[in-house]
Each structure stands twice: as C-alpha cells, then as structure tokens.
Amino acid sequence: MTVEEALRTRRSVRAFLPTPVPRDVVEHLLALASRSASNSNCQPWHVHVLMGEPKRRLTRALWRAMDSGERVAECEYPYQPAPDAWQQPYRSRRAGFGDLLYRETLGIDAGNTEGRLAHHRRNYDFFGAPVGLILTVSRHPLAGGLIDAGLFLQAFMLLARQAGLDTCPQAAFIDFYPVLRRHLDLPDDQIVVCGLALGHADHGHPLSRLRTPREPVRSFTTWYGSDET
User: What pTM was estimated for this model as a whole?
Assistant: First the structure.
C-alpha cells in the first residue's frame, strides 16, 4: 500500500472486531512511527499500550467515572483541547459530523440524549478494539510537544492502515485523565494527548458506512506566484 492509499483508506473506525493484534505487530508499528519528526529530535511522546485484562480493567474504571459524573472541567486540564465556543466554519463542520454520525448512521435523533451517551460510552472500551493506546507528551516542551505528538500519531495511523489495521484517535479520554493517572504509570511531567483504538474494523456494523467529507484544496490554500515565475 502506498502512502496515498493509506491516506485515502484511513478513517476513524468506531466498531472493531475482537480479532487479536499480536504484540510484535504493535511494537513494529511503534518503532516505525518513532521515526517521525520532532523539534530538535526531542521525541517527547510516550505510549501506554493496553491489551487483555488491563484494558478491560481501565474500561470498567472509566465507565464508573462516567456514571458518577467524575468528568473534569476543561479549565482544569493543562491545555484546552477545545475552545469555549466554536467559531465558523468549524462549528458547522462539527455539527455536520454529529448529524452524520448520530442521525444518519446510527439513527439517533438530536433529542435522544440517552442514545448519544450510550454511543459515547463506547469510547472507553476503545470501540471494542483489542488494543488501546494512550498517548502522552511531556509538559516541558508542551506546545511544540503537542505538534510532535500529532506527527507521531499520524505516522502510526498510516502505518497501521498499511498493515491492514484500522484506528480511531480519541480525545474523549482527556475528560477522565485522573482515572488514567490512577491506572497507568504516568510520570508527573506527562499529560494525556488522546487515546487510540487499534484493530480490525467490523465491516458488518452500521458505523462501517460512515465517511466524512473533506474541504477542497481551494478552501484552505492561498497561492503566491506561479510555477511560471
């Protein structure tokens, strides 16, 4: 698979088969992803890989936290993963995705709060994937480190696609980062960037039909000069 093919076929999968992914495959993907660029080669990322019972134990703890309202306020987090108010055009794009996911794909109307929460709850089981990853980054080069972590994450997702696997990056784990600190060996200087589900997509699930649109190049590009000058 070429890089172009990996990009064209990569998507955020939200329904996985329980088919195991061998540890050596995950380790190989991580080793390749570590070749990602980072500022001055700082490599500030760290990955926590969960499989089997440790993954199930974390899921149970996250579900308990969700049920008890333990979610942390965004202002309590070391960085703000989302704005206080979404501006255009991002608000419309976000709303469009929500409508595509819940109403068109899952048949869950906007007023069905219980149905939406039930789907959101699946985040903390990594959508049924056999492997869950929690990506963290050092606080010290925080702004630059987040960029570096994004480069690492993208590389890992494309490499997984090349290997015939699927992924879903998940910001939802940030809402319960104190739970992650209690269950994972997180040094004080490391903060959670996101989670990542890894496995084989369940193509029989309705969510396998979900495809999100992309803006045309002209909408996000400004050209200066031309190839003739």
Answer: 0.93
